[in-house]
Recover the amino acids of this structure.
C-alpha cells in the first residue's frame, strides 16, 4: 500500500503543477487562460498525404511511440505526431492493441492472413522503432485449413475461427513469453508458447477441443484457457472444457467441464483466482464468479444477467485496488474491492456496460440513460462526462485519463467533439468536430484523431494550442502506445 500511495502522489504531480501555473497566469495577466481557450475550427484541416516511401522510419530511438490502426494500414508516430509512417499497407492483418502490445516492451503481435481470415494464418511480431516485421510461425496449413466452400461446423473451420475470431494470444506479464492459439499439428486449435529468450515454440495442449482465450496469471506462473467443440452461429458455443497449465507450458490440467453455452475470462483477482462469466441464450452474460485454479473452488458473485470488468491484477499499470471487480445488474452498479469478501453498491442507476481501461487505470461505465462516468479501481474519484455527452444512444465515445485529467471524445450523428475535465478544472469543449482515440502522452499532452488528421494540444499551453500535426490515410480504428514501460513516466 505504501508503494501505491507514492505512486498516486507522483501521478498527481502534473495536475498540481497545472493548477500552480494557472494561478500564476491569472495573477499576472488578470484573466483565466483555462476559461477562454483559443477558438478552434469546426472541421479538421486537410493535410498532405503522409509519405510512406521512406527507407528509415523517422521515429525516436526510445519510446513511447503511438501506433495507429486504420482501414488503410498500420501506422506509427512519435508522441508529438512527428515521424508519422505507415508500417503495413492495407487491412489484411488482425490485431487487438489491448492484447497485442508487449508489456514494458517494443513489440506488437500481428496475425496476418491470406485472401480471408481462415487461410494462410501466420503469427508475426512487429518491432518499433525500426518497423521490422518478423514471422514467428504459420498458424495453419493446407491440411488444417477449411476448403474454400466449407462453412461453420467443420473441425477445420472451427479451428480457424478459434484463431481469427476469438481472443487467441496473450503476453506473459513480464513480456518474455507469448501464449497463442495455432492449428499447425492437427485438426484442432491448440495452445502454444513462444519464448522470446530462446526463440523456441512449445506445444501446450493436445486436447480435441478448439482452444481459445489463453490468459496468464498476474505472476506468470499459470496459464488458463478454454476449449469448445464449436462456436455456433449466435446461439452459443458447444463447450468442452477449461484447462490450466504451468507458466512453462507443463502440467496441463482439466479444471472443469462447463455446462454453459460459452465461458469468458474477465481477468484475475490475484495469482490464483480468475474472474469468469458464462453465456447462455436465455440470459446472455451471467453467473459472474471467482474461480480458484488451485483449489478448484468457485464463489458466485451474481447468478443472473450481469456485465462486469476487473481492474488490472498484474500491475501493468498499477491501480489503487488491484483485482477489484466492478459489475452491474438491473439493480445498479456494484464493486467488490480486493480487500472485501462482500460487494458494495456504488450506484442504484441501471447500467448498460462496464469496462476496465488498462492504460488509464480506471473503470468506464455507461448508464442506461446514456450518461457516462469513470471510477478509479477502488470506486473513488467518480468523474461524470460533460453534460453534452449524456445523451441516450450516443455511442462512439472514448475516454482517456492521466493523473486526474480526463479527455472525452465523441463521434456520432448526435454530437461530436473533445472535452477535458477533472477536479477543479473549468475547460470548455476544445473541439467540435468528430473525434476518436484520445491518448495522453507521458507529459499530459493530449492527441486524438478527427477523420484522417491527428490533433494535439499541450499541457504547457493549458490546452489552448490545439492544431493538426499529422495525417494518415483511411479511417482510424484504434490507437495506443508502445514502449511506455507501463506508462509510468516517473520510473523511466
Amino acid at each position: 500500500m505504501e508503494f501505491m500511495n507514492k505512486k498516486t502522489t507522483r501521478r498527481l504531480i502534473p495536475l498540481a503543477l497545472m493548477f500552480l501555473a494557472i494561478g500564476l497566469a491569472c495573477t499576472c495577466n488578470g484573466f483565466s487562460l483555462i476559461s477562454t481557450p483559443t477558438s478552434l475550427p469546426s472541421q479538421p484541416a486537410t493535410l498532405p498525404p503522409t509519405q510512406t516511401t521512406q527507407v528509415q522510419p523517422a521515429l525516436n530511438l526510445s519510446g513511447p511511440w503511438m501506433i495507429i490502426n486504420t482501414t488503410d494500414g498500420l501506422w506509427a508516430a512519435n508522441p508529438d505526431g512527428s515521424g508519422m509512417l505507415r508500417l503495413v499497407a492495407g487491412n489484411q492483418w488482425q490485431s487487438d492493441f489491448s492484447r497485442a502490445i508487449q508489456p514494458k516492451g517494443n513489440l506488437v503481435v500481428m496475425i496476418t492472413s491470406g485472401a480471408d481470415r481462415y487461410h494462410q494464418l501466420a503469427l508475426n511480431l512487429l518491432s518499433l522503432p525500426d518497423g521490422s516485421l518478423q514471422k514467428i510461425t504459420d498458424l495453419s496449413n493446407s491440411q488444417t485449413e477449411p476448403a474454400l466452400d466449407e462453412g461453420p461446423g467443420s473441425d477445420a473451420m472451427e479451428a480457424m475461427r478459434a484463431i481469427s475470431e476469438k481472443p487467441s494470444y496473450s503476453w506473459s506479464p513480464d513480456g518474455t513469453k507469448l501464449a497463442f492459439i495455432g492449428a499447425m499439428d492437427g485438426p484442432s486449435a491448440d495452445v502454444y508458447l513462444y519464448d522470446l529468450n530462446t526463440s523456441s515454440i512449445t506445444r501446450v495442449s493436445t486436447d480435441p477441443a478448439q482452444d481459445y482465450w489463453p490468459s496468464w496469471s498476474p505472476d506468470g506462473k499459470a496459464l488458463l484457457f478454454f476449449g469448445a467443440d464449436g462456436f455456433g452461429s449466435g446461439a452459443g458455443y458447444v463447450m468442452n472444457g477449461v484447462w490450466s497449465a504451468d507458466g512453462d507450458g507443463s502440467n496441463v490440467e482439466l479444471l472443469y467441464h462447463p455446462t454453459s453455452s460459452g465461458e469468458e475470462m474477465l481477468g484475475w483477482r490475484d495469482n490464483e483466482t480468475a474472474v469468469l462469466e458464462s453465456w447462455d441464450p436465455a440470459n446472455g452474460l451471467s453467473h459472474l464468479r471467482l474461480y480458484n485454479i488451485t483449489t478448484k473452488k468457485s464463489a458466485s458473485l451474481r447468478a443472473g444477467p450481469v456485465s462486469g470488468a476487473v481492474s488490472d491484477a498484474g500491475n501493468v499499470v498499477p491501480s489503487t485496488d488491484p483485482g477489484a471487480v466492478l459489475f452491474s445488474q438491473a439493480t445498479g452498479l456494484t464493486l467488490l474491492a480486493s480487500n472485501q469478501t462482500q460487494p458494495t453498491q456504488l450506484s442504484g442507476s441501471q447500467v448498460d456496460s462496464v469496462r476496465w481501461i488498462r492504460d488509464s487505470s480506471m473503470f468506464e461505465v455507461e448508464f442506461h440513460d446514456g450518461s457516462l462516468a469513470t471510477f478509479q479501481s477502488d470506486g473513488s474519484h467518480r468523474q461524470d462526462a460533460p453534460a453534452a455527452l449524456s445523451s441516450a444512444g450516443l455511442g462512439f465515445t472514448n475516454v482517456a485519463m492521466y493523473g486526474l485529467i480526463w479527455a472525452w471524445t465523441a463521434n456520432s450523428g448526435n454530437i461530436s467533439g473533445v472535452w477535458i475535465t477533472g477536479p477543479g478544472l473549468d475547460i470548455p469543449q476544445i473541439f467540435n468536430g468528430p473525434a476518436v482515440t484520445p491518448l495522453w502522452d507521458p507529459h499530459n499532452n493530449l492527441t486524438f484523431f478527427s477523420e484522417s488528421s491527428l490533433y494535439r494540444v499541450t499541457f504547457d499551453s493549458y490546452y489552448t494550442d490545439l492544431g493538426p500535426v499529422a495525417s494518415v490515410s483511411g479511417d482510424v480504428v484504434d490507437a495506443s502506445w508502445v514502449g511506455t514501460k507501463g506508462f509510468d513516466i516517473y520510473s523511466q
